[in-house]
Amino acid sequence: MNQQQDQEHRPCYILAVETSCDETSVAIIEDGRIIRSNVISSQIDIHKQYGGVVPEVASRKHVESITWIIEQAIQEAGVAPEDLSAVAVTQGPGLVGSLLVGMIAGKALAFSLQLPLIAVHHIAGHIYANTLVHDMEYPLVCLVVSGGHTELIVMEAPGDFHIIGRTRDDAVGEAYDKVARALGLPYPGGPYLDKLAQQASSALPLPRAWLEPDSYDFSFSGIKSAVLAALNQAKMKGLVLDPAHVARGFQESVCDVLTEKAMRAVKEYGAKQLVLAGGVAANQGLRERLEARCAEAGIPLLAPSLILCTDNAAMIGAAAYLKWQRQQFASLDLKAEPILPLEEWLKL
After folding, report:
1. 3-state DSSP percent of the chain in helix, strand and coil, to 5
2. Do 267 and 152 have their domain in common?
3. What is the total count of domains within the chain?
4. Residue 3: its pLDDT value, please?
5. Which among 292, 223, 303 has a CA at the least distance from the CA of 263?
6. What's the CA gap between 23 and 44, in Å, rounded?
7. Domain of 108: which CATH number?
8. Structure pTM?
9. By C-alpha distance, which of 310, 291, 292 is closest to 301?
10. For a Cys staple, 177 with which of 57, 189, 232, 236, CB 3.0–4.6 Å?
11. DSSP assignment, residue 144?
C-alpha cells in the first residue's frame, strides 16, 4: 500500500471540545460515527445553589477542568495525539465566556499539533448526536427541544437546515425549569418534573398554545403563567394543589403542542424520519407521546441515548465530520458567537 492509499484508509479521529454552557466535555470520534471517548464534567452541583447557571462561575470551572479532561479523553480513546486528524470546537450559540474557554483550548491544541480546526454549531451537534446511534435518512424533520431552543427543522440533505418553526418566547426546557421551581423541585427541574408527572393519576386542566392555524412556531410563556396563576389562586383560597397533578397537566399541554406540530410537519414535508434532539429529548413523557404518534403514522422516531441528549463533546465531533468531509476548516482567529444562525453554519 503506497502512502496515498494509506492516507485514504486512515481513520479520521476528531478531538472535539464542548463548553457552551455548564458542561466541560472532550471527546474523540472516529469517522463521525464511533465514540472512542466522551468525557463530561458537569457543574450541576455548583449551580443548583443559585437555582440556575451563573455565567462567570461556569467560565471559571471550565478553565479549571479543560486541561485534565483533554488528557483523559485522549487516554481513554487510546489514540495518540499525532494520530488525530482535526480539532473541533463549539463556536456557538452559548455563553460567550464558556465558549471562549473551549475555543482557546481547541485553538492551542490545533496549533501545537498542526491540525485543522473545525467550528461547530451547538444545535447541529445536538441533531447529529443521532448519527452516533442511528442512520439518518433524508428528507427528515427534526424537533429540537432544549433549555435555550425549541425549533422545528426540515432537512433535505446532510447539513441542510431549514427552520420552519421556533419559540416566540420561552424555550421548552426553560419553561420546564420555571414551573419546576414554582413547585419547589430541585434544580435542574425538568427531569424532576417529568418524573413527578409520571406518578400522577390525573392532570390539572391547562390551555394549549396553538398560535395561528398554519404556524409551526411555539409559545410556552402562557402555559407557564397559567400554572403560576393556578398555584396562586389555590393559595389564596387556602387550598393545596397536588404537585404531581400540576406537573402532569403542564407536561401534557407542552407535549401535545410539540407532538402535533412535529407530526404535521412530517406529513407536509414528506419526511422519512422524525428526529428528536436536545436536552429535553431525554424527557420520558415527550418520548412516549412521539413514539406512539410515529408508530401510528408508520414513521421512525430517532432519538439519541440519554447521555447524548444533554451537552457533550461526542455530538460536536459527529457534526464536525460534515465539515471534515467538505474540508471546511476555520482559521485560528475564529471568534466565539453567542448568537450563531444554524441555517448558515455549514456555509461558513
Report:
1. 50, 20, 30
2. yes
3. 2
4. 40
5. 292
6. 8
7. 3.30.420.40
8. 0.94
9. 291
10. 189
11. E
